[in-house]
Amino acid sequence: MTIGDEGAEEKQKKELRKKRESKKFEKKEEASLKEASTAAITAGEKFSKKTTSQETNNQQISNEANEEEKLSEASPKAGEAKSADGGKKQKKEKFLKKRASPRSSKYTAVAGLVDKKKIYSLKEALEILPKLKTAKFDETVELHINTTEPGIQGGFTLPHGTGKKTRVVIVSATKDPKALDDLIQQVEAGKIDFDILIATPDSMPRLAKVARFLGPKGLMPNPKNGTVTTKPEDVAKKFEAGQINFKTEAKSPIIHMTVGKMSFSGEQLSQNITTALSAIQSGKMRSVTLKSTMSPGIRVDFSAALA
């Protein structure tokens, strides 16, 4: 063998080793790829199972949420229990608690004297009313009237007054402009310390600024009820003597009216109430309830009272 042949053999051996190493590397690479592929498939299956399970759970949660929503709509209490808004829940609970809270023992004791389903004659109602007194002070006697329509208003004078001093204020842009300005500022600040406001015609344009405060309370001067006049002093005397203005509430066909005190005699209250009902007129009333400040209400047959 020549040196050249040995060199060639060595060269072949090296190439052979390289081929063998190359084959081993390919086998390892193939095995590695196969292992990675298997792992990927396994992981995919696990993920798929997990996703399916999660979707199932989500579906169950969604179904439960829908069910709770239905229950909430069907039952206000259930809705409150599931409410996410703690503030609203507390307000509802407070309202329900207040509504459900029992009346005082005194009120409960006298409430049984009134049949809520019965409509009493005015005479019967006035006989029951003194028995319902629970307060130590001289309670105000009130009429609460449901009318056939809103926008009903007018005025009249009670024969025996209301039993309390009527606070009357007069304003005139010509005679005392500063007093008018002061009153407007007080009303805008929420301070209203009068029962009747009488104005001269020249004051009305400036009072329009506070009409949104006075109107809903029935205190805005109006020519229809005599509170806009060129003779305010004369009108003030009538109101102080017991003249009453009435008007339905802004959003409800209801009139609330003071007709005397519990210290009045039955005859005095009867005359005052009859006068009030006559001013409103029978055809404009649906129902009339008589009560004192702290007593239960007594439904009154107003048609018979005016007959």
Structural write-up:
The chain is α+β, with helices and mostly antiparallel strands and 307 residues long. The chain has three domains: 3-76; 115-163 and 244-307, Ribosomal protein L1/L10, rRNA-binding domain (Ribulose 1,5 Bisphosphate Carboxylase/Oxygenase); 167-241, Rossmann fold (3-Layer(aba) Sandwich), CATH 3.40.50. The protein has eleven helices and eight strands. It has helices spanning 3-74, 76-82, 86-100, 105-111, 122-128, 177-188, 204-207, 211-214, 232-240, 266-280, 302-306, and strands at residues 140-147, 153-157, 168-171, 196-199, 243-247, 254-261, 285-292, 298-300. The strands form three sheets. It has a four-stranded antiparallel beta sheet with strand order 6-1-7-8, covered by helices on one side.
Note the main attributes of this structure.
Ribulose 1,5 Bisphosphate Carboxylase/Oxygenase; two-stranded antiparallel ribbon; 307 residues; disordered N terminus; elongated; 4-stranded antiparallel β-sheet; Rossmann fold
